[in-house]
Amino acid sequence: MWKTILRRVLIMIPELVILSVIVFIISKQLPGDPFTGSINPKASMSQIHHLMRINGLYDPWYQQYWNWVVSLFHGNLGNSYQYQEPVTRLIAERAVNTFWLSFLTMIMTYAIGLPMGLYAGRHEGKLQDALVRIYTYVTMSIPFFVVLVIGCWIFGYDLNLFPTNGSVSPSASGFLPVVLSKIYHMILPATLGALFATSGITQYLRSGVIDARKSNYVKTAQAKGVPMKDIYKHHIMRNAFLPIAAFAGYSIVGVLGGSLFTEQIFSYPGMGLLFLNAVNFRDYTVMTALVLLYGFLSLLGTLLSDIALSVVDPRIRVE
């Protein structure tokens, strides 16, 4: 398996190179520039052209790309035009917030989705199953940003139960108060993200339980008098979790992608909000670095799904 993992990692390199070239070309085709209105509203066109020239933005795209690659191999992703600081440090600061928000969202997603899927599959065709299916159909039919806006309005503005912007309260001081404030700021966006993301996991697990329950080895175990509790524990559960294992890596990527909407609506200072601001302000260095990072995480999620699938089912091996 380790040889396969190494081969898959090596295959990621040309894929990321192609992705970086495409992103670099597309970003340069966007109208506007990173300096107009951001340095000085009264700056003349000659000053803007001078800034464009000294930053190499008038060079051919392939020359700019080559300079970027050379800097990349020296551990330098360039400086942000908007924030005037190194891109690596800027992303590292925001990545911490996105990581913890995504981590809490994933925990809540599986904490809600797994019991619901098992419960619905075990009570197929009954009222309990119908209620769970109605819930999944509703969450799948409503756009994610609508759920975020409604939740922000009801629980943030109307009931005033949770904060609706930032990642920590300005009044929080000390280690424990800061940590508790960060968790408090993440509860609402993480819960809304989890409620939206559970639909896929619930449906996959429900179908897995139903299929496993109707299989021949379960019928054989029942004929031998094995208690149903043991059948679920040793036979149905293990096989029902196969699609969840295959879905796990993609769930991580989906949560990170969904952070674009979450961080924008809740003004949460993470990588998603940083990317949207970079697009608005034509911050090419930040845009390229973040798309490359998201591309790497997508490829990594695919690999993790294959590995998790082989761990859950010993019959399946990544070869």
From TrEMBL:
GO BP: any one term: transmembrane transport
Principal location class: membrane
All copies of domain ABC transmembrane type-1, residue ranges: 95-305
UniProt KW keywords: Cell membrane, Membrane, Transmembrane, Transmembrane helix, Transport
Residues that span the membrane, as ranges: 9-27, 99-120, 132-156, 183-205, 240-266, 286-312
One Pfam family of this chain: BPD_transp_1_N
Taxonomic superkingdom: Bacteria
Recorded GO CC terms: plasma membrane
Keyword set includes ATP-binding: no
Membrane topology (UniProt): Multi-pass membrane protein
Localization terms from the record: Cell membrane
PANTHER family xref list: DIPEPTIDE TRANSPORT SYSTEM PERMEASE PROTEIN DPPB-RELATED
Family label: Belongs to the binding-protein-dependent transport system permease family.
Protein name: Oligopeptide ABC superfamily ATP binding cassette transporter, membrane protein
Source species: Apilactobacillus ozensis DSM 23829 = JCM 17196
